Amino acid sequence: MSGQSYTGDVQVGGPADVRELPGLTIAKLAVSEMANNAYLLTSPATGEALLIDAAAEPAALLELVAGADVRTVVTTHGHWDHHRALPQVVEATGAQTVAHPADAADLPVPVTRPVEHGDTVAVGDQVLEVVHLRGHTPGSIALVWRGPGGAGTHVFTGDSLFPGGPGRTTSPADFASLMDDLEERVFGTLDDGTWFYPGHGKDSTLGAERPHVPEWRARGW
């Protein structure tokens, strides 16, 4: 499947949608009654792979990663629907587990590599930048990949940013915190062509969402 046919529109029980970019292959799979997105990132140059959010349905995730050299599983945040299959995936792959320390206690397995804002995580010869987005949970993170050779910039946002607005927050203070971080650390640093991949549902670009950011802040959710 060529990268041109990728839409990011996946259905639970359906196949993964695969995007082949210079330097990185991205496979997106929807799992569970919560329609969580899991993303398998593979470096074509080395064959090494990284899974973002071992959310649920371990059999489906293990089928997705079958044959891949999964070295790392990143959990974007501590909510239960994003890590239910983490024990089985880690047991099957021996991968290191990556998460922010503020959410580590909510995960069902120990975090072997805690990460903070500004840290990096490798996928073979490619590098993902950790962006801490405080508000949906204390330790929510996004991962930024700045692709080589015209591949563009790609961000895996967990439940912090969706098409149409920020992730759910439970207090005005958390909402303000998340909006501040999104404006400073995502919209303030990345261009309109940046494609983002959320924890549920369809993808979007920062350019499509940017005009609506003031509306989000004004409405308060």
Description of the structure:
- The protein is an alpha/beta fold and 221 residues long.
- The chain is built from six helices and 15 strands.
- It is globular, with a radius of gyration of 16 Å.
- The protein starts with 16 loop residues before the first strand and ends with a helix.
Q: Gist?
A:
The chain has 221 residues and is an alpha/beta fold. The protein has helices spanning 58-64, 86-93, 101-104, 172-187, 206-209, 213-219, and strands at 17-21, 24-31, 36-42, 48-52, 69-74, 96-99, 113-114, 120-123, 126-132, 141-147, 152-158, 161-162, 165-166, 195-198, 204-205.
Keywords summarizing the entry:
seven-stranded mixed sheet, alpha/beta, 15 strands, 6 helices, six-stranded mixed sheet, 221 residues
Q: Strand order within the widest sheet? A: 1-2-3-4-5-6-7
Question: Would you identify the regions where 5 or more consecutive residues have pLDDT less than 50?
Answer: none
Structural class by helix and strand composition: alpha/beta
Tell me the total number of β-strands. Answer: 15
Strand content: 25-35%
User: Topology as H/E string?
Assistant: EEEEHEHEHEEEEEEEHEEHH
Tally the helices.
Answer: 6
**Largest beta-sheet details:** 7 strands, mixed
What is the helix fraction of residues, given as a range?
A: 10-25%
- Taken from the alpha-carbon principal axes, the silhouette is globular
How big is the Rg? 16 Å
The average pLDDT is: 96
